[in-house]
C-alpha cells in the first residue's frame, strides 16, 4: 500500500469531500495562499477558489461565530484554528453557540460545523502554543471530538466527520503532520466513536489517543522485552466514547493504563478510569494507572518540557506498576 | 415613503400584540408560571416592527434575550412563543430553550441569544452564505447598546466590512447597558460614531417613531440587498420596563421614565394614525379588541399545552 504523511492524508480527505459536496467551505487564518501554517490546506485555494477557501482576519470569536451562521443556513464550514490554544478566544462561539444551538432550539437549528485544529507539545512552543485541550470539548455536551493518531485514521475519520451533521472538533497533533503510514488509494471511512486495537496483548491494556498512541506502542515493545504482553487501544474519539472496546480488553487483561498528553488532573483518563471501575470492577487485578502531562503550564526549556509531557518511559513505568501490582 | 392603509394597520396591530404579549409574560412570571429570567421589550415595540417589517420572511435575523417582539414581527407564532415561556412541548423550542432562545428557521429566525453580542457573528455567517450562493437574502442582527463593547460584536463588524456581507447591524440604544448608563461606558457621544470607523454606511433614527424606523431600515435593506455592503443603524429608544422582571431601577429617575412614557409609541402611534393617516377611533378600537382576543387565545393555548416528556430530554443532542 502507498504511504502518505498525516498532513497529506488530511488534505486528501478535504479535497475529496470538497469535490463531492459544494457546501463544504474552509475558513481560517492564512489557509489560502500560504496553505495554513502546517500546510494542510496547501493547493486548495487554487483548486477550489476564494469562495470555498476563505481567509479570515485574526479574529477567532468572529469567524467561528460566523461559521455557526454559515452552518445554520445550509453550508458545511470547516474552520481551522491555527493552534488549539486559540480555542479559548473563540470559546463562546464554540461552547455557547455551536454546541448548544441544536438542543436549545428544540432541534430546529442544525450546525454541521467542523473545527479543525492541532494541539500538543514537544516542539518548544511553550505554554500558549503547546496545550492539549480535548478535555474541555469532551466535557461540554453537544460536540463530537476526534483525535487521530495515524495517517490512515486521519483521512478516514476526517471523511466521516465531514459527513456528520453535527459540530465536530477535529484535533490533530503538530508532531504527527510529518509522520507517514499506509493510506489506501480507494475511498474508505473510519466511523466516529469506534476505538481501534492497535496492538493485541494479554497482560495489560493501554488506552490512548493522538500522538500518545505512538508512545504507547513503543512502550508496549519495551514491556514485551520484560515479558509483559500489552494491548494498545487507540480511542480515536473521546465523544462518542467507545468504552465497550476498553471494557472488553480490560476483562481480558485485568490491568489498565490510560495515557494522554493533556493534563492528568480531571483529564479524560479520569473519566475512563471511573467508567471502567463502575462497569468492570471485578475484573481489575490492579489499580488503574493514569499517565498525563504534569499539572503545570507547558515549560519552554527542553529538559523541562520533556519532564512535563508524558513520554515512552512514563508509560513503561505505569505498565510495570499495573503489571506487578 | 407612502404606506398602504393595511400596512399601517399591521404595524400598529403587531406593536400592540407585542406589548400585550410581554405584559402577559410578566404576569406569568409574577404568578410563578414562567421560570428563570424575563427581559421584556416593553417600550421597544416600534423598533421591533420598524426594523423587522422591511425584511423578507427568508431574510435572516439574530436578536437578543429582549427579542420576543422582533421574533413575533419576523413571523414566529406567538402561541409557540408563549408556550415556550411556560416550558411546554408545543413551544417553539419544545420547552428546551425558554425566553432567551426563540429560534425558528422557517421564518429566518436564527435565534435570540443569551450572550450579549453573540448573535452578530452568526448573522455575518448567514449573510456570507447568502452572498456566496447569490440568493438575494440579507441578514440582520439586532442588539442593544450594551453589546457595543463586546469583542464578538466588533469582530463581526469587521468581518462584515472585510467580506462586504449583506448584513444590517441594528442597535437599539435604550440608554442603559443592562443597569448602567451606556454614556459612562463609551468615549463617544453616539454609538454610530463608534461604528463609523469600520468603513461602511451608518445611520441614526428615532426609535420611538415606527414610521421613521421602517423608512431608515428600508434604505438599509436596499443598500445591503443591492450588494453595497453592510449597514449600521443606531435607533434611539427606551425601555419602559426594567432590564428584567425584578429590576429595582436605582439607576434612573421616575421623572425620566415618565418623560419617555409620555411618548410611548403604543399610545402615540394610533393617535398619529388618526391625525395623519386617515384612521378613525373605531378602527383603532377594533384592532385593540382583535389583539385582546388573540392574547386570550395565546394564553389558553400555552396553559393547556402538555409538558415535554422526560423521555425526550436528550433527543435533540445530535442530529
Account of the protein in words:
The complex is a heterodimer of chains A (325) and B (319). Chain A is of the alpha/beta class and 325 residues long. Chain A contains 12 helices and 14 strands. In chain A, the strands form 3 sheets. A 7-stranded mixed beta sheet of chain A has the order 3-2-4-5-7-6-12, sandwiched between helices. A 5-stranded mixed beta sheet of chain A has the order 9-11-10-13-14, sandwiched between helices. A two-stranded antiparallel sheet of chain A has the order 1-8. In chain A, helix 1 runs parallel beside helix 7, helix 3 (60-72) runs parallel beside helix 4 (91-98) and helix 8 (212-225) packs across helix 12 (312-323). Chain A is globular. The model of chain A has no long low-confidence stretch (mean pLDDT 98). With 319 residues, chain B is an alpha/beta fold. Chain B has one domain (5-28, 38-305): Thiamin diphosphate (ThDP)-binding fold, Pyr/PP domains (Rossmann fold, 3-Layer(aba) Sandwich), CATH 3.40.50. In chain B, a hairpin with a 2-residue loop joins strand 4 (176-177) and strand 5. In chain B, helix 1 (5-30) runs antiparallel to helix 3 (68-74), helix 1 (5-30) runs antiparallel to helix 10 (265-276) and helix 4 crosses helix 11 (281-304). The mean pLDDT of chain B is 97. Classes of the chains: A alpha/beta (325), B alpha/beta (319). The A-B interface holds A 25, 51, 54, 56-57, 59, 61-75, 77, 92-93, 96-97, 101-110, 112, 141-142, 144, 165-166 and B 60, 62, 91-97, 101, 103-106, 110-111, 113-115, 118, 120-130, 132-133, 139, 151-152, 155-156, 158-159, 162-163, 315-319.
Amino acid at each position: 500500500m502507498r504511504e502518505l504523511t498525516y498532513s497529506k492524508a488530511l488534505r486528501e480527505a478535504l479535497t475529496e469531500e470538497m469535490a463531492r459536496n459544494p457546501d463544504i467551505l474552509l475558513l481560517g487564518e492564512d489557509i489560502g495562499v500560504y496553505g495554513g501554517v502546517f500546510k494542510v490546506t496547501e493547493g486548495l485555494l487554487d483548486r477550489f477558489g476564494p469562495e470555498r477557501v476563505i481567509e479570515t482576519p485574526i479574529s477567532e470569536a468572529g469567524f467561528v461565530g460566523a461559521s455557526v451562521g454559515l452552518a445554520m443556513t445550509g453550508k458545511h464550514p470547516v474552520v481551522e484554528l491555527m493552534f488549539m490554544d486559540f480555542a479559548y478566544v473563540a470559546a463562546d462561539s464554540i461552547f455557547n453557540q455551536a454546541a448548544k444551538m441544536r438542543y436549545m432550539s428544540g432541534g430546529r437549528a442544525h450546525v454541521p460545523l467542523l473545527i479543525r485544529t492541532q494541539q500538543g507539545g514537544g516542539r518548544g512552543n511553550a505554554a500558549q502554543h503547546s496545550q492539549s485541550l480535548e478535555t474541555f470539548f469532551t466535557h461540554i455536551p453537544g460536540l463530537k471530538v476526534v483525535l487521530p493518531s495515524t495517517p490512515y485514521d486521519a483521512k478516514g475519520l476526517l471523511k466521516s466527520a465531514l459527513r456528520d451533521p453535527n459540530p465536530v472538533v477535529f484535533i490533530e497533533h503538530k508532531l504527527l503532520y510529518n509522520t507517514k503510514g499506509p493510506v489506501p488509494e480507494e475511498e474508505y471511512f473510519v466511523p466516529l466513536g469506534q476505538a481501534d486495537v492497535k496492538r493485541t496483548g494479554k497482560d495489560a491494556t493501554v488506552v490512548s489517543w493522538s500522538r500518545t498512541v505512538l508512545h504507547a506502542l513503543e512502550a508496549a515493545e519495551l514491556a514485551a522485552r520484560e515479558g509483559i504482553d500489552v494491548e494498545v487501544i487507540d480511542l480515536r474519539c473521546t465523544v462518542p466514547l467507545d468504552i465497550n472496546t476498553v471494557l472488553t480488553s480490560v476483562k481480558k487483561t485485568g490491568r489498565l493504563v490510560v495515557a494522554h498528553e493533556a493534563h492528568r488532573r480531571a483529564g479524560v483518563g479520569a473519566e475512563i478510569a471511573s467508567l471502567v471501575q463502575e462497569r468492570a470492577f471485578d475484573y481489575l487485578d490492579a489499580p488503574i494507572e493514569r499517565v498525563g502531562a504534569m499539572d503545570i503550564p507547558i515549560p519552554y526549556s527542553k529538559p523541562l518540557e520533556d519532564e512535563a509531557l508524558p513520554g515512552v518511559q512514563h508509560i513503561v513505568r505505569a505498565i510495570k506498576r499495573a503489571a506487578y501490582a | 415613503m407612502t404606506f398602504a392603509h393595511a400596512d399601517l394597520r399591521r404595524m400598529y396591530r403587531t406593536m400592540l400584540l407585542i406589548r400585550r404579549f410581554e405584559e402577559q409574560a410578566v404576569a406569568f412570571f409574577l404568578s410563578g408560571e414562567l421560570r428563570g429570567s424575563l427581559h421584556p421589550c416593553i417600550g421597544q415595540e416600534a423598533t421591533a416592527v420598524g426594523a423587522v417589517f422591511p425584511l423578507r420572511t427568508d431574510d435572516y435575523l439574530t436578536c437578543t434575550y429582549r427579542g420576543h417582539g422582533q421574533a413575533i414581527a419576523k413571523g414566529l407564532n406567538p402561541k409557540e412563543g408563549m408556550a415556550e415561556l411556560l416550558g411546554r412541548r408545543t413551544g417553539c423550542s419544545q420547552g428546551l430553550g425558554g425566553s432567551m432562545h426563540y429560534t425558528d428557521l422557517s421564518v429566518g429566525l436564527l435565534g435570540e441569544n443569551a450572550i450579549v453580542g453573540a448573535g452578530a457573528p452568526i448573522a455575518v455567517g448567514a449573510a456570507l452564505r447568502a452572498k456566496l450562493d447569490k440568493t438575494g437574502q440579507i441578514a440582520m442582527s439586532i442588539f442593544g447598546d450594551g453589546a457595543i463593547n463586546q469583542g464578538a460584536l466588533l469582530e463581526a463588524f469587521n468581518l462584515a466590512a472585510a467580506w462586504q456581507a449583506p448584513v444590517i447591524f441594528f442597535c437599539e440604544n435604550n440608554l442603559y447597558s443592562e443597569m448602567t448608563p451606556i454614556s459612562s461606558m463609551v468615549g463617544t457621544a453616539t454609538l454610530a460614531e463608534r461604528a463609523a470607523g469600520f468603513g461602511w454606511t451608518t445611520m441614526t433614527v428615532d426609535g420611538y417613531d415606527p414610521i421613521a424606523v421602517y423608512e431608515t431600515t428600508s434604505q438599509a435593506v436596499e443598500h445591503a440587498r443591492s450588494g453595497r455592503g453592510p449597514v449600521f443603524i443606531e435607533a434611539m429608544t427606551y425601555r419602559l420596563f426594567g432590564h428584567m422582571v425584578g429590576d429595582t431601577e436605582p439607576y434612573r429617575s421616575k421623572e425620566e421614565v415618565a418623560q419617555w412614557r409620555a411618548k410611548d409609541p403604543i399610545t402615540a402611534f394610533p393617535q398619529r394614525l388618526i391625525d395623519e393617516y386617515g384612521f378613525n377611533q373605531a378602527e383603532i378600537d377594533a384592532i385593540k379588541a382583535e389583539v385582546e382576543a388573540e392574547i386570550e387565545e395565546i394564553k389558553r393555548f400555552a396553559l393547556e399545552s402538555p409538558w415535554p416528556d422526560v423521555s425526550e430530554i436528550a433527543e435533540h443532542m445530535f442530529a
